[in-house]
Amino acid sequence: MVSRSSSIGDGATVFPGGVIGAHVVVGENAVVYSGTIIEHDGRIGSHAYLSPGVVLPGHVTIEAGAFVGAGAVLIPGVTVGKDAVVGAGARRPRRRGGGSDRDGLARDLTRAPKVVR
Question: Do residues 35 and 18 lie in contact, with contact meaning Cβ atoms separated by under 8 Å?
Fold first, then answer.
């Protein structure tokens, strides 16, 4: 289901059972897998990949090329950086410490490996 107020970029795929709420922008060639829920006011960058069962409440940004593993649940206001990886099952139900929202995810985020061919 895709809200009428949201936009899906060229080449992006939203699999059956994916839910795109109000005012969400999904970038080109991004993948939103089955069972993933993006509540409202989210931004999904180009070539980002959201695995099955990911839950993104309002105001979450997934930057270009990032990968979010199956069943990850993020908190409102989180930004997952460009080409970052959030591990499967990652949970961040509340903010931690006095730092930014990114700090609360630090143990679940790693840089994506470079692919050399």
Answer: yes
User: Coil, strand, or helix at residue 109?
Assistant: strand
Tens of pLDDT, residues 10-64: 999 999 999 999 999 999 999 999 999 999 999 999 999 999 999 999 999 999 9
Q: What is the DSSP letter of 73?
A: B
Which domains are delineated in the chain?
7-111 (2.160.10.10)
Determine contact, residues 74/53, Cβ cutoff 8 Å.
no
Catalytic, out of 23, 40, 47, 59: 40
Residue linked to tokens 């790693």: 110
At residue 75, what is the residue type? Answer: I
Structure tokens belonging to residue 33: 């897998």
Could you tell me the CA-to-CA distances from 94 to 29, 66, 101, 105 in Å, in that order? 30, 21, 9, 10
Determine whether 47 is an active site residue: no
pTM: 0.79
Sign of the alpha-carbon torsion through 71, 72, 74, 80: negative
Pairing of strands 67-68, 37-38: unpaired
